Amino acid sequence: MLVTDHPDLARRRADRALEADRRLRQLFAAAVPDSGGDPREGGGLALVAVGGYGRSELSPFSDLDVVLLHDPSVEESVVREVAEAIWYPLWDDGVALDHSVRDTVQMRDAAASDHRAAMGMLDARPVAGDSGLVLGLRSEVLADWRRDARTRVEEVRQARQARIERAGWLAHAAVPDLKESGGGLRDSVILRALVATWLIDVPHGESEWLRSSLLDVRDALHQTVGRRVERLDADVIPDVAAVLGMGAEELDLHTRQIGRRIAHLASLAWRKVDDALAPPRKGTITSRGPKVLPLGDGVGVLAGEVIVTKDADPATDPELALRAAAAAAREGLPLGPGSAVRLARTMGELPDPWPPTARRHLVDLLTAGPGLVRVWDELDFAGVVDRVLPEWAPIRLRGSSSPVHRFTVDRHSLEACVHAAAIKRDVARPDLLAVAALLHDIGKGVAGDHSEVGEPMATRIALRWGFDAADADVVGRLVRWHLLLPTIATRRDIEDPSTAANVAEIVGTEDFLDLLAALTASDAQSTGASAWSTWRRGLIEGLVEKVRGVLDESVGSPDAEAYEGWPVHVPVPDWGTTGPADFTLTVEPHQGGSLLTIVTANRRGVMADLAGGLALAGLAIRSARTVTLGDVAVSLWEVSRQDVDPARLTERLRPAMAGDLDLAGRLELASIPDAEDARVRLLGNVSETATVVEVRAHDRRGLVWTVCDQIASLGLSIRSAHMSTYGDEVRDVFYVVDVDGNRLDGPTAEKLRDALAAALT
Hints:
It is a single chain. The protein has 30 helices and 17 strands. The chain is an alpha+beta fold. It folds into 5 domains: 14-148, Beta Polymerase, domain 2, CATH 3.30.460.10; 168-275, no CATH class; 298-388; 404-559, Hypothetical protein af1432, CATH 1.10.3210; 583-760, no CATH class. The strands form 4 sheets. Strands 10-11-13-12-16-17-15-14 form an 8-stranded antiparallel beta sheet. Strands 3-2-1-4 form a 4-stranded mixed beta sheet, with helices on both faces. The chain starts with 6 loop residues before the first helix and ends with a helix. 44% of the residues are buried. The model is unreliable at 36-40 and 556-570 (pLDDT under 50). Its cofactor is Mg(2+). Keywords: Hydrolase, Magnesium, Multifunctional enzyme, Nucleotidyltransferase, Repeat, Transferase. InterPro entries: ACT-like_dom_sf, ACT_dom, HD/PDEase_dom, HD_domain, NT_sf, UTase/UR. Residues 1-294 are annotated as: Uridylyltransferase.
């Protein structure tokens, strides 16, 4: 909750403007005696207040933005004499003057070529001289602004984006700039300019109140420092807070909340601008109103936003919030603010622990990459985050005590998720990496060492979110040790064998080491350039490789059956005479989708035929488990669709199983722009009786078929397959044997690896 503003500070800003007005009028009257003592009569000359001064918003050390405006017919010598008679006394008074001299044509031309000049003129106010000259020019500039709005707003947008790249966001920057940061004073002025185009409207009262509240902070900052300054450094916050009658932490949070709300208003405003300028969407209007493009159960796209549909009920379907958020982040679209508010107000309680479907939607959201930040902010602003992660509140907008951090704790955690999503192919469990990235600093909201107090917090959260005890323990350990690698790498001799041995004892396994290394990189990159310098990165990566060497020496060869166990009993039918198209299929509801059990004759290529047939049937494969039982192959396929008709799917699969379809021609892998190449690894220590191949790749239609088809084309067989999907990434593991059912020799295994890598690239 924002505290109230300070009316006395706003009154002082207006009083400063009035005092400046009086002084300028005195000087103008003395410089233009023909005005007859009336400073409003200037004979084609006028003094104009623009910018903050034009809005009567003068902070203690603000510049005085003044233009000496004149009609083009006024002689240049006269204009020069008047200007000197006004500027020199002000300089002698020590006034911080931002001045210019222009005729009305020059002023209009400047406004036409420079959006900053145009916005300044939109707030222009006549101070002395020919007020008609000023009002006429302002009307012309405003008319030009509205006429050319389509191009002018794009100029403003591009300049704003460049400014925010430099100054960051007021709500999340480690050292916010009250004026330049996104959500700062410049953004509040831009809102006024956007409204002036007549393209959109914004809540005027709230916008003006927010700017006034932020100006109060700047006034107190000027008063404390004794000069013009815009950056709210940590060392001045206590003194600034004292001027405003607040505590230091209270002021920091208050300022960031203002910036957050201004940024949110700006985001909504720019989306309205886009809608206003966009050409009519063909086919989006029906007799019943705008057409909603469905994205999932209760989720759709309308006017470029992801929304919750009217028929959806968040009260009875609490997973709807996660489903909508994941869809928005995955599509790179904003989540509609109305839908976010509706979800926060009406969503029911998720059970403890969450069901697997809710956990999957959360992982999809956290692994979506850059789309996560905007969607999470909308959820947080509406109050949904408090419903799914109440532990977030103590770190929300919380500044960091470390000078190397460029973000608040909450934004830093989201940025860590974004960086983790970019390297999720480096780890076996991208879901655990994403959750650990989000929660690695969750302990900073309570007293104590944040790594130590964060471990049990993260473990409890992971359990609540539906992870099993082993996975939750991994998340907790990642949080506990997320500073281990940079601390050891920069403070110990990594060439000393005992250093790597000590770290290896803590991490335990190579999979955990990979997760910890990825979390370390994500944490450092979201902190700042100095935290991931070439030197630090080299030390950390060097340490990781040395620890990996220690772990490799200690790894045994586990029993293959521990990886290939079949958890269910499936009756094997007696087909009599079997052919390639003979199979049985059963369907049952499963975790928001369907579970298909398919029993067929065991033959080379059967997995490829099944995967191809399912892909052509339009089913997205979430995971699969397949084993061979003698002459029979039994497989479980988890697909995302709920309404699978067994009879219809059987008929769709039969041509694929009989070899009557050109699967290669119909399932050619689509290219993914800017996607990382697939990675294919041979896992040598997993099984003594089969060659285990792991595929890490971007999920897409035909992927499973491509892998299975390549294996079959080399005359090899799949003894079992274990496929899992994390967001848009797959982790598929295949146990492959030769024609005699034995593990592949070295050259054959390498040939298989290379063939799969080539087929998936």
